[in-house]
């Protein structure tokens, strides 16, 4: 039986650029690097950057990272001042910044949780919403 998410691997074209983005801008902890990749951590998340042909999704697929509400405004301002590319504007519960990494992988910095989202859906359900 599955017990949780083990790790994420993202294909990157330029390791040094991606390391700088994830470590210096997003605040992840670099653990190790080698010729074609690196392992990073953020809390219990294990992220692998693997040098390969990066072909990120152009749909709504994305990775969302938690941030405390008090930290969001300053963090978002710092990312924007660094010139990150934004791919979407937030229209849902909680503050969010939707950005792309140097290879175009779609990320989200989000204030909120599944429980806060479900609470909003009780008041304003999506069209066709069914509680399971």
Automatic annotation (TrEMBL):
<feature type="domain" description="VOC">
    <location>
        <begin position="4"/>
        <end position="112"/>
    </location>
</feature>
<dbReference type="InterPro" id="IPR004360">
    <property type="entry name" value="Glyas_Fos-R_dOase_dom"/>
</dbReference>
<dbReference type="GO" id="GO:0016740">
    <property type="term" value="F:transferase activity"/>
</dbReference>
<dbReference type="InterPro" id="IPR029068">
    <property type="entry name" value="Glyas_Bleomycin-R_OHBP_Dase"/>
</dbReference>
<dbReference type="Pfam" id="PF00903">
    <property type="entry name" value="Glyoxalase"/>
</dbReference>
<keyword id="KW-0808">Transferase</keyword>
<dbReference type="InterPro" id="IPR037523">
    <property type="entry name" value="VOC_core"/>
</dbReference>
<dbReference type="InterPro" id="IPR050383">
    <property type="entry name" value="GlyoxalaseI/FosfomycinResist"/>
</dbReference>
<protein>
    <submittedName>
        <fullName>Fosfomycin resistance glutathione transferase</fullName>
    </submittedName>
</protein>
């Amino acid at each position: 039986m599955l017990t949780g998410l083990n790790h994420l691997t993202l294909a990157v074209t330029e390791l040094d650029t991606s390391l700088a983005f994830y470590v210096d801008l997003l605040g992840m902890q670099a653990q190790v690097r080698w010729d074609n990749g690196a392992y990073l951590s953020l809390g219990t998340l294990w992220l692998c950057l693997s040098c390969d042909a990066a072909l990120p999704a152009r749909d709504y697929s994305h990775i969302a990272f938690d941030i405390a509400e008090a930290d969001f405004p300053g963090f978002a301002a710092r990312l924007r001042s660094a010139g990150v590319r934004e791919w979407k504007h937030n229209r849902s519960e909680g503050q969010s910044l939707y950005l792309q990494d140097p290879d175009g992988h779609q990320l989200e910095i989000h204030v909120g949780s599944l429980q806060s989202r479900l609470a909003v859906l009780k008041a304003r359900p999506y069209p066709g919403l069914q509680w399971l």
